[in-house]
Structures
1.
Amino acid sequence: MAGAMKARASVKDGVAEIRVLMNHPMETGQRKGSDGKMVPLHFIQNVTVKLNGKTVVEGQISQAVSRNPVFSFRIKGANRGDKIEVSWLDNNGDTNKTETAVA
Amino acid sequence: MDGVRREVMTRAGAAGTVAAALAAGLLKPEQVFAANWNKDAFHSKSAVDALARIGATNAADSKEIVIEAPEIAENGAVVPIEITSNVPGTKSIAVVIEKNPFPLAGQFDFMDGGVPFVKLNVKMGETSIVRVIAEAGGKYYAATKEVKVTIGGCGG
């Protein structure tokens, strides 16, 4: 299930850099668990970054993204105090999001 | 008012149908929830197919795309890749790991201030060319970088 999620954003020379951490197993469906059975495919498919409520980056990803994904994104024209929201949606329909202010 | 109500009811009906189909096992969850997920491209088992399905068959090589990745990755489970496209007007960046079982690892669309840049960690099963495709002005541009993998990352 959806674990903790963290994001941090800081602005330099008019460009905000956002670093986000997601807790997710990102199972490839090609691995056997301790019970000897294949662990089902379970991975984040969509990642969305919003600046003050407006979508700025929309990512579609596969099971090839590493477990507990970490991403960095950049946004031009963001100012200190602006609101950044990052959310994800996985192949089981689970979703999570986090918010941070640009520092 | 009636128009709004009708739309609400239609949507509710559609959602109900989806739930019923799900319950009946007719649809896999991934087909239902991820409306905006290029299933055909992500399910492609070869880089050529994946590229065709994102529409990037005739990508021109470009030095304006910068890929930062290790030459040798000791652990294929976590390979950091940083991509910047300096192609003017880049709207989208796709990452294709040619030797992975499903080569397309991700596609990122940028709008309203989103800089065509992304840093992510990927799994690599074996040594492979990492191909990055940038889309700008309806055209496709490509750059590649080989990453040697000593321990593959697909076994978990």
Note: Chain A has one domain: 5-101.
2.
Amino acid sequence: MAGGGFHGGIHPPGSKELTSGCPIERMPFPERLIVPMSQHLGAPCTPIVAVGDHVERGQLIGHVEAVVAALVHAPAAGEVVAIGAALTPAGVRTTCVTIAVDPDQDPEAFRPTEGPLTCGGDMARAAGLVGMGGAAFPSAVKLQPPGHTAVDTIIINGCECEPFLTCDHRVMLELPERVVAGARHVRDCVAATRCVIAVEDNKPDAIEALRAVAGQDVEVVAVRTRYPQGAEKQLIFAITGRAIQPGRLPVTVGCLVHNVQTAVALVDAMEDRKPLIERVVTVSGAVGRPGNYRVAIGTSVEALLEFAGGLNADAARVIAGGPMTAQPLGVLDVPVVKGTSGIVALTAAEAAPIVGSDQACIRCGRCVEACPAMLHPYAIANYADRRLWDGCERFFASDCIECGCCSYVCPTRRPLLQLIRKAKGALITRGARS
Amino acid sequence: MSDTEPQAAPRPAKVPPGQMEPLAHGREVVAGPHIAARTTTSHIMLLVVAALAPAVVWSVVSMGLPAVIVYVSCIAGAVGTELLWNLVAKRPQTIGDGSSLLTGLLLAMTLPPMTPWWMCAVGGIAAIGLAKMLFGGLGFNLFNPALVGRAVVLLSWLGIMGELKPYAGGWLSALSLPASGKLDAISGATRLALAAADRAAGGAYHYDLAAQYKPLLLQNLQGCVGEVSALLIIAGGLFLIVMRIVDWRIPLGYVGSVAALSWAFGSDPTFNVLAGGVLLGAFFMATDYVTSPITKKGRLVFGIGCGVFNAVTRFYGPMPETTTFAILFMNGLAPLIDRMFLPKPFGWTKPAKAAKAHA
């Protein structure tokens, strides 16, 4: 059933009204950009520039031969002043190229990607495209499915089910033609027949804007507003009624899902040969000027927050992404990367309380009801707490999609997701050892 | 450029579990999700107390001081036991979650108004001490604490409990209570006992079940404190279902199977649902989270199991009031029922066949 649902899920307060009316605003280049060589899932890139080099905007600065990887380009013209390990929003140290940005440069000019690029997959690789919804999986890999698999349906994911985030909403509202064009490109890359743009029904203006330009060949489907509607497996089930087996990829049911901003970036890459060097980021919560900002990759969160009016005095927790799945930021001197969809400052009253795992489960069943993967989170967490990995395996801990619904609904505030992550990690380690 | 890492700051001596030391910019860093629903355990407990409140108030208005004494001594026994247990065991104090308050309240509602205060207190102590704290506190008990308390009181003083007369009620008559606690009353037995006697005698007493609907629904003084008005218990139960605190499957399975079996055994289904504490048990006792199954299917099985046990023992047992033991029996089976309905992950298919299956 199109526009239908999936099992479980939650309905957290959207908190989107803070920024959903804020048009995308370009943030001027900061003085300095810190560009990580690994902003994606897969092999990290190696810098191909040296300290002292001058780089153009869009020039390739990080390269790697591995297939599962995304190339890195200079987000602004300037001089390379340092190459060394620095923190990313994920809290890991990775090689970064630091660029001192040239003042007074044309913010729109860039060096197009080079080489004989024959198909969309090649162009996506040359442009360093990754999934911009947060997972940062290299897009070129998804656009070049193995020969024996057939994709008949592609879905452009405009659900944006995370609270606070509105960057995809604004992109759909302001650039509907680009989104629709991106959907067609994705469809043509994999020779699919059905082309869907899925938007949660809390964004009627975006649905209307897309339908006005979509034409006959692109379906704009309103899906139920419910977290995690934008999770890949849940969205595919809602749109096509096809359930992906645990541990398998969407391609096994003939589907391919790309985020809205990834689709737009694909249009940029294919029509303008523009690499992925900037993105729209929602800055929301306890900040002076919440809004949606077009930000150069590598801009520090500190500079972005300053541009957005600075943190309010009551901001207790700063996170990179939507509050259900975001990484917490221990330091603010980390760069915005390709997968950064938002920077949200939560007040102490909004933020989930910090508790230990000594809170006993009262077996209320809320986590079982909320789990979109149809697991029993309470049971996995109880086993994980006691380091009984066999029990975790029997309750399918590895099939958890880490959406966080269980922790959200738990009335005793047990850290269910953390415990399940612990179980998943232990099962992977154990599997690798045996 | 120097490659030396900055020295790690010395860790504070002891960080409370789950917390981290404040970082350079003075903001907390914890794993997500970073927002949480507002409902907590104590909210849930207080909502259940609120759902019981009309029935409690009405029982006090109808039965007067004896009901107050039963409520106060049960709650004091229950909450006091948890308080002392935590103090002696040097554990964090947990009475704030409201669960022992609810246990005491529910225990009181299962006792007759003339139950001596010390028996009520022992019931409260047994409910919390024996059924809950001994098992590890909230979340770890296997059996419903309030019902264990009632079972202890009932079986320890079977003679006294049998002799207790129902009480005509009212605040004025309460002032002239005889010290023994035994009273002459309008009738010596509960409606359910009368119905059972009539049935045993082959209908010789012509006990009219249909005529009992109205008093059972509105004001029944020949039963326990919590049985004064079935209507208020139903209203409270429906409130909890609407508020999504309890799953409708347990009360529906319970009440439905009691009604169906009563009809099958040739009795009046409506009377059998209204009498004998079935509604209090179905809406407020069997739905206890800790002691009932966690899956939806399991809850339906559990509710039906309670109803079947209750109805069968009511008609073919030594005494008609078996709600307590029906639920306690099924509490013991709850873990096994959960095991009947192990989860199948989303998209899971039987390894043998490739056919798609989803719920």
Note: The first helix of chain B runs from residue 41 to 63.
